[in-house]
Amino acid sequence: MKKILVIDDEEWLREMVRMALAQKGYEVIEAENGAAGIELARKALPDLILCDVNMDKVDGYLTLSELRNEPATASIPFILMTGLADNAGMRHGMELGADDYLPKPFTIEELHAAVEARLRKVQTLREEAERKLADLRDNISMMLPHELRTPLNGILSYGELLAADAANLSAAEVAEMGQVIRQSASRLQRLVENFLIYAQIELLAADAGKVNALRQKQTERPVTLIAERAREQARAAGREEDLELNLVERAIPMSAEYLARMVDELVQNAFKFSERNTKVRVALTATASGGVSLCVENFGRGFSTEHIRRIGAYMQFDRKMQEQQGLGLGLVIAKRLAEVHGGGLFIESERGGLTSVVVNLPGAALNNAAAA
Predict the structure, then answer these.
(1) 337, exposed or middle or buried, with CB in 10 Å at 0-12, 13-18, 19+?
(2) Which residues, at least 6 apart from 61, have a Cβ–Cβ distance to it below 8 Å?
C-alpha cells in the first residue's frame, strides 16, 4: 500500500484529501504545518507528499527545500497545492525541486489523476533502474570471466615457471617474466577498478538524493589536475611528444576524483586508438551557456555511426578485427559521469580520421542551483 503524506494547515482539506485517497487504497498520514510535515516525512518516508504552499512560519517552499536537501527524503515525489498558481510561484517551486502543482480548488478526479501520474512516473523510473542493473549483471556474467582470466593466466604461468625453475633462468629471462607479471597485474587492477567504478556510478544514478549530493561538489582549479593526468597517460603510451594541451582555468562541477577518472579514460582511449606521431589534443573551454567543455581529439581508427549509437557497458568495438584489453567501459564511465553531473558526452568521428569526444557540463553555480 502506497503511503501519502498530506501537509496543510486547514483540517477540513486534509480530511477531504484523506478520504478521497483512501477510496483508492492509499494509506494517508497528515501534518498540520510545514515543520510537522518535515519531521513526519523524515520518520515515515512516504511514497509521495502533497503540501500546501501558503502556511505560517514554514511554508510549502521551505518545506520542499528542507526535504530536498536531505538524502533520505530528496527523491520523494512532491506535489505543491496552492490557490495562487501564478507563473512566478510555479517556476520557484520547480526550481526547488517540486514534481507537480495542484491548483486549488481541485476536484477529486484531478487529485486522483495528479497522484496516480506521479506515482506511475516513479514506478517507471524504478523499473528502468532495475532493468539497467539487470543488464549490467548479464553483461558482467558474460564478459568478466574472460577478461579476468586473461591477465591471471599470464601471472600464473610465469609465476609457476619462476617457482619451479628459477635456478636455471638467466637474469634477463627473470626480468622479462617479472615485466609480464607486472603488466598482467596492472591490467587486472584496472579491470577491477573499472568494474567497481561503473557499478558505483549506476547505483548513484538510481538514487536522486545521492545525485543531488554529488552535484554539490566541484573542482575549483582543474587545469593542473587535467594536465597531470593527460601527461601521465601520454607517458604510459610512450607518446609524450604527441600530446597537446589547451586548458582554460574554469571551475568544474565534479569532484577531483571523478574528474581524474574521466580524463584518464578519455585520454587513454585517444592514445590507444591512434597512431604514433599523430596528435592527441586535450582542451578545456567555457561554453556560451556558462558551462564548461572538455574535449579530447585524436586521429586514428575512429568510430562508425553505429558504434557511436551503441556505446554501452561492456561493449568493445571490432573485437574480432583488433584485440582490445579491458571491459570496454572507458567511454561509458566518462559518459555516465557526465550524465549524473547534469551534462552529457558527445562523439564526432570519421573512420580513419578525426575523432572528437566532448564532455559538456553546466557551470558549477548552475549545477548546484539545479540540484538544490
Answers:
(1) buried
(2) 53, 92, 93, 96
Question: What is the distance, to the nearest Å, from the Cα of residue 341 to the centroid of all Cα atoms in its chain?
Answer: 6
Report pLDDT digits (tens) over 103-147.
Answer: 888 999 999 999 999 999 888 877 877 777 676 666 666 656 666
Q: What is the CATH number of domain 126-206?
A: 1.10.287.130
Architecture of domain 212-372: 2-Layer Sandwich (3.30)
Place of cell 557526465: 338
* Per-residue pLDDT tens digits for 14-57: 999 999 999 999 999 999 999 999 999 999 999 999 999 999 88
Per-residue cell: 119: 506515482
- Answer for the pair 191, 183: CB distance below 8 angstroms, yes or no: no
This prediction has a pTM of 0.54
How would you classify the pairing of strands 100-103 and 243-247?
Answer: unpaired
In terms of Cα–Cα distance, which of 99, 105, 108, 104 is closest to 74?
99
